[in-house]
């Protein structure tokens, strides 16, 4: 396990270098003007001399490779730079928002895995039954539905029509401090929407895996020995059928991050979505590079976690084979 983690850590280094270099290259080719984004409305009345002086101060005319190398050497020393659009240190920007994005993604992912596994097992028990058809049809429908459309529909139903949950934000507008109760009530809708966007994949994978396991010889042998249907389903079919789901943990991380950005934007959740959008439109090199590095690292860790879990749960696979 230690060797596997070490190899993946060494592999992550060139990946992160290439990703950050690509971010600076793409941002340099962006049609957005970072000087006007930095100046804001004041840029409308500023003369060209003032804009040129501001451009020199920001180093916009420097080659992107020079800016990338300066940012990289500073980042290795613990300094992620200064966000030009938010006027804050990049570390502070990420620190203030990462907790809420992590909370949203973690809750949604756990709900998606548990609910998807339950629905998949129920559908696999009796293939072709009405429950199987309902679960399969619902999974394919939700898989095709855009995340932002689901979010707007949920806001209209549960916030505007029924009024059971707030439409967005982190706390009530009249509240001056963040309380766990308010955070929990405001988390229900965005976490639910994000979980629904991930649930179909787990439900379909579990349904297929458990359905195939029920037809295997070990499960038939357990039934022949007189084991109850519950024991056969949970201790034999589910343990074998859950293995393909472990590979989804890593592969769904990019989709989870993308969905979280959309959900945070729709529900005004104070995560990293707003910072990412502002960094992209304002060509904020340091903030954009740090956020991209963070997202890439999350994907790499997700893939590593999936491989570790697969090796632990499947005795046929060894860590040396990964």
What can you see in these coordinates?
- With 322 residues, this protein is an all-alpha fold.
- Helix content is 75%, strand content 1%.
- The protein contains 14 helices and 2 strands, in the order H-H-H-H-E-E-H-H-H-H-H-H-H-H-H-H.
- It has helices at 2-28, 34-39, 48-58, 64-76, 90-125, 130-144, 147-161, 180-214, 217-224, 229-241, 243-251, 253-267, 273-281, 285-313; strands at residues 82-83, 88-89.
- A two-stranded antiparallel sheet has the order 1-2.
Summarize the structure.
This protein is mostly helical. The chain is built from 14 helices and two strands. A two-stranded antiparallel sheet has the order 1-2.
Which labels suit this protein?
single chain; 322 residues; mainly alpha; two-stranded antiparallel sheet; 75% helix; globular; membrane; transmembrane; BPD_transp_1_N; MetI-like_sf; transport
Question: How do the strands line up in the largest sheet?
Answer: 1-2
pLDDT < 50 runs, ≥5 residues: none
Percent in strands:
under 5%
Helix vs. strand class:
mainly alpha
Helix content: over 70%
Sum up the overall morphology in one term: globular
Largest sheet: 2 strands, antiparallel
| Rg computed from alpha carbons, rounded to a whole number of angstroms | 24 Å
Domain ABC transmembrane type-1: 98-306
Protein name: ABC transporter permease
Subcellular location: Cell membrane
Transmembrane segments: 98-124, 145-167, 287-313
């Amino acid at each position: 396990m230690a060797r596997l983690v070490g190899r993946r850590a060494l592999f992550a280094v060139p990946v992160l270098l290439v990703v950050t270099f690509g971010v600076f290259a793409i941002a340099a080719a962006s049609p957005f003007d970072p000087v006007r984004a930095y100046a804001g409305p004041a840029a409308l009345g500023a003369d060209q001399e003032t804009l040129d002086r501001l451009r020199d101060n920001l180093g916009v005319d420097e080659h992107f490779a020079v800016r990338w190398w300066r940012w990289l050497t500073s980042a290795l020393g613990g300094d992620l730079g200064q966000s030009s659009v938010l006027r804050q240190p990049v570390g502070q920007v990420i620190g203030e928002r990462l907790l809420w994005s992590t909370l949203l993604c973690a809750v949604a992912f756990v709900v998606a895995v548990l609910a998807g596994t339950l629905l998949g097992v129920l559908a696999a028990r009796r293939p072709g039954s009405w429950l199987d058809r309902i679960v399969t049809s619902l999974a394919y429908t939700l898989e095709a539905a855009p995340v932002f459309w689901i979010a707007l529909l949920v806001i209209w139903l549960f916030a505007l029509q029924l009024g059971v949950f707030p439409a967005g934000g982190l706390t009530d507008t009249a509240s001056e401090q963040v309380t766990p109760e308010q955070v929990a009530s405001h988390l229900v809708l965005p976490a639910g929407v994000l979980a629904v966007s991930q649930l179909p994949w787990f439900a379909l994978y579990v349904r297929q895996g458990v359905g195939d396991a029920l037809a295997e010889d070990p499960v038939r042998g357990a039934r022949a020995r007189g084991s109850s249907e519950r024991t056969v389903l949970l201790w034999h079919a589910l343990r074998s059928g859950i293995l393909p789901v472990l590979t989804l943990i890593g592969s769904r991380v990019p989709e989870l991050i993308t969905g979280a950005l959309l959900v945070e934007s729709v529900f005004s959740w104070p995560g990293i979505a707003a910072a990412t959008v502002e960094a992209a439109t304002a060509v904020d090199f340091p903030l954009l590079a740090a956020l991209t590095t963070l997202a890439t690292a999350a994907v790499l860790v997700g893939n590593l976690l999936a491989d570790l879990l697969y090796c632990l749960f499947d005795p046929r696979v060894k860590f040396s084979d990964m």
